[in-house]
């Protein structure tokens, strides 16, 4: 098509033949038109493929092709960079990521309408920015057509940073997409989920390169066969290894007996309105038939105690007294249970950054989402949730957002940010010496964070959660499958206690055992293995993310340098 010189460039474009000798990354392409609806169709296709691949009802094999349409969009704008600005493809990739986010995490709406809108819009925005930065780097670098592979570093770098900043929402890290197909990813014990991200991206890139050259008719049948074989091997070798590892793996360590309780209290209407003693009695009555001298642990969910526990004087709490009486009758038992706890600052004591002022102005206190350990010891064990949900539990970038704390409502009825534990606390069973840790709700999504407990000596992971806020949606089922990822990465059994489901055991291979259905009262008893060995991933964490960050920073600096050099030439 012909365009007037003063006419804004339309998306109805032609990819012209190049005079330069083509390469596998930049082949000559015959005449092809891409209109706006073509771009919208490609973007929507990627978004739908990503959504339909996601746990727990999706098929993760779609991940290996889901990015291919995005790569074609990016390639189109790269080839027409003289007619389009640096951010011209942004709207199209944003559309893809918005569809993915909306279809997979819409259930946040059930707990917070404003939060769900913010999560979907912002997460899509961050993703689109990262992809566009990758595109800008290709535009700016000399021989940029040869740098398609940079996405293999830019995206894992983004996922790594998204695990570690104040707006963290890593639910859609690509490696999480295999959470319900554990036989595929037993090798996560070496790489963590970022290995899965790299696996997916490289597969898509290879398929894109193959298709691009086929469409350009610049590749021979032999070349097609060679690249095809590489793609098959790249996908198949990890799968074959994983199937064999899954088949031959034997659980490691001595054993312990655990009882899990699922009280099934409605978090919206029932849990916070029932009398304190009645809430706790429901759990104790459910587990009592299963408790005998062989049981070492009783694990109850997040917020199983509905009484404010002041750490300055915990023994005054009715709930603590009831649990101490229960332990006195079963002295072999360690109880791990969730509660909301508080600590009052003494006069003259330095205040923390999360300190809150009493409404009567009489002093300051910190609020916590806590896992309590109660046994025959004279002191209680405390671990305070340290990976907090942005908004309900933590104000992102507090120096900027602290003035907004009065309008940010915590699920438990408080405002501001919760205080956290400064270290990954590991508890020891008083009788058998077993070392275990608590992960409270959202924390179980974070692989490297969990390895901190393992390096501190934990032999058993206990996940305590309250997933009833999301309703009977994919939210609580996806959250469940992420415990399988943590089991594989660390080769630790996981004991999962959920208020409204799904409570279960997860073995060291990631198998989910004895699940109590959602919205069902119940208790289960099972045996877990206490592993002492450290996996490669437990030792070294998200090394793929760190390498990716270093490479990405280097190329972003090169991008900036080339951009400044070009501006300097224009000025001169």
Overall pLDDT score: 90
Shape: globular
Main beta sheet: 8 strands, mixed
Computed over alpha carbons, the radius of gyration is 27 Å
Helix content: 40-55%
Number of helical elements: 16
CATH-assigned homologous superfamily of the largest domain: Carbon-nitrogen hydrolase
* The level-1 CATH class of the largest domain: Alpha Beta
CATH T-level topology of the largest domain: Nitrilase/N-carbamoyl-D-aminoacid amidohydrolase
Approximately what portion of the residues adopt beta-strand conformation? 5-15%
CATH architecture designation of the largest domain: 4-Layer Sandwich
| Cα end-to-end separation | 35 Å
Domain module count: 2
Helix/strand-derived category reads alpha/beta
- DSSP, total strands: 16
Low-confidence stretches: 1-22, 408-414
Q: What does this molecule look like?
A:
The protein is an alpha/beta fold and 572 residues long. It has two domains: 32-180 and 544-571, no CATH class; 254-540, 4-Layer Sandwich (Nitrilase/N-carbamoyl-D-aminoacid amidohydrolase), CATH 3.60.110.10. Helices cover 41% and strands 15% of the residues. Strands 3, 4, 5, 6, 7, 8, 9 and 16 form an eight-stranded mixed β-sheet that branches. α5 (113-140) runs antiparallel to α6 (151-162) and α6 runs antiparallel to α8 (193-216). The longest helix has 29 residues, at 543-571. The radius of gyration is 27 Å and the shape is globular. The two termini are 35 Å apart. Mean pLDDT is 90; it is low at 1-22 and 408-414.
């Amino acid at each position: 098509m012909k365009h007037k010189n003063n006419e804004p460039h339309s998306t109805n474009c032609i990819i012209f033949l190049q005079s330069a000798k083509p390469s596998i990354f930049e082949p000559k392409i015959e005449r092809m038109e891409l209109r706006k609806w073509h771009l919208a169709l490609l973007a929507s296709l990627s978004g739908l493929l990503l959504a339909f691949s996601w746990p727990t009802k999706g098929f993760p094999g779609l991940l290996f092709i889901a990015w291919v349409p995005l790569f074609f969009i990016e390639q189109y704008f790269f080839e027409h960079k003289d007619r389009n600005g640096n951010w011209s493809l942004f709207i199209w990739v944003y559309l893809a990521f918005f569809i993915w986010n909306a279809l997979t995490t819409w259930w946040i709406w059930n707990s917070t309408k404003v939060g769900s809108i913010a999560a979907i819009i912002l997460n899509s925005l961050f993703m689109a920015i990262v992809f566009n930065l990758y595109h800008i780097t290709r535009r700016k670098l000399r021989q940029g057509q040869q740098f398609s592979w940079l996405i293999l570093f830019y995206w894992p770098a983004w996922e790594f940073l998204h695990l570690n900043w104040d707006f963290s929402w890593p639910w859609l890290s690509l490696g999480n997409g295999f959470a319900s197909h554990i036989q595929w990813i037993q090798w996560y014990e070496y790489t963590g989920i970022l290995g899965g991200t790299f696996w997916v991206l490289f597969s898509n890139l290879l398929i894109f390169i193959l298709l691009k050259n086929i469409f350009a008719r610049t590749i021979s049948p032999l070349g097609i066969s060679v690249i095809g074989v590489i793609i098959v091997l790249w996908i198949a070798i990890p799968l074959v290894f994983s199937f064999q590892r899954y088949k031959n793996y034997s659980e490691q360590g001595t054993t312990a007996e655990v009882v899990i309780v699922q009280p099934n209290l409605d978090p919206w209407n029932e849990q916070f309105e029932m009398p304190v003693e009645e809430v706790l009695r429901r759990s104790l009555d459910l587990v009592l038939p299963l408790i005998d001298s062989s049981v070492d642990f009783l694990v109850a969910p997040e917020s199983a105690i509905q009484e404010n526990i002041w750490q300055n004087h915990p023994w005054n709490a009715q709930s603590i007294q009831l649990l101490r009486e229960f332990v006195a009758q079963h002295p072999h038992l360690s109880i791990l249970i969730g509660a909301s706890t508080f600590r009052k600052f003494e006069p003259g004591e330095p205040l923390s950054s999360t300190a809150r002022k009493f409404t009567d102005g009489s002093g300051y206190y910190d609020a916590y989402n806590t896992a309590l350990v109660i046994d025959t010891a004279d002191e209680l064990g405390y671990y305070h949730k340290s990976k907090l949900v942005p908004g309900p539990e933590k104000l992102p970038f507090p120096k900027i957002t602290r003035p907004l704390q009065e309008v940010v409502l915590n699920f438990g009825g408080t405002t501001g940010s919760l205080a956290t534990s400064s270290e990954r606390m590991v508890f020891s069973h008083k009788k058998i010496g077993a070392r275990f840790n608590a992960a409270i709700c959202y924390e179980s999504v974070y692989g490297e964070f969990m390895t901190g407990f393992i390096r501190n000596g934990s032999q058993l992971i206990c996940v305590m959660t309250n997933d009833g806020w999301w309703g009977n949606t994919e939210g609580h089922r996806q959250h469940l499958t992420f415990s399988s990822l943590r089991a594989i990465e660390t080769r630790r059994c996981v004991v999962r206690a959920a208020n409204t489901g799904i409570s279960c055991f997860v073995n060291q291979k990631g198998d989910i055992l004895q699940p109590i259905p959602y919205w069902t009262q119940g208790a289960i008893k099972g045996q877990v293995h206490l592993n002492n060995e450290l996996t490669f991933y437990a030792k070294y964490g998200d090394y793929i993310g760190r390498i990716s960050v270093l490479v990405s920073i280097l190329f972003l600096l090169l991008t900036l340098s080339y951009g400044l050099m070009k501006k300097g030439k224009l000025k001169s």
